[in-house]
């Protein structure tokens, strides 16, 4: 059985699917650990840089409380998203029984994700180990809470005032319509329009093109949702930058300590310090990559808002 130093395990990546940690249970587990009890291994996913905790959050907290830092672990190869997907179905048949709030959080984790939300209710129920009716109820609640825009609004453009149908704003286009860069439906070319018109159309981006995924996600949003997305992206960007700065300081501090190390510091302590420094470097690189991704999404979302303002769909 493998073991892992809990200081190397990351628990801040959204992989926790429980609504809350039961501190009473943590205390009981910690006492049992101090008494020599053996617990099942925690489950972590390793992406080459970080170890993401997917199952065993109460045990993780208990080992920390008991000051036992090497915990048995089931270490699997996978990404942070793999850990999240595993987490939503964890504890369905073992460990501390899930509460209704735990189940709700697990389901909403998938419903709030642009990729997983398109799954059927049955598939989400299978992943979260809940009843299909439960998923359907939460999905309907989420849909009811989304802001609605009026089916028509008055638009003035070029000296002409007219009623604009807003029913399809933010909705996917019909199969026989091409999509503009930001998901706005464009009419299909008329039959016999000629080779020039056909050649003017850009090739559809590959399904796994990151830019195409961003455009599709933005296109699904209502105008109000798009504005909320911009606000949220700005907050996420500030948070990611702050985390990157903090990890950079942590890495620099660890490197400074390594330089000051003497021969008496060699061995396990020095090795652990080097490993922590390497981990901090990996986390810093990860946060910087996240910053770049958020900056890109923010630029796209702001461009979409500006486009809608020029169309006078969104008030400037």
Automatic annotation (TrEMBL):
UniProt biased composition (Polar residues): 157-175
A Pfam family reported for this protein in Swiss-Prot or TrEMBL: ParB_N
Domain ParB-like N-terminal: from-to ranges: 3-91
Alphabetized UniProt keyword annotations: Coiled coil
Stretches for region Disordered: 139-212
Coiled-coil positions: 230-311
Keyword Transcription annotated: no
InterPro entries noted in UniProt: ParB/Sulfiredoxin_sf, ParB_N
The protein's name: Biosynthesis of aminoglycoside antibiotics
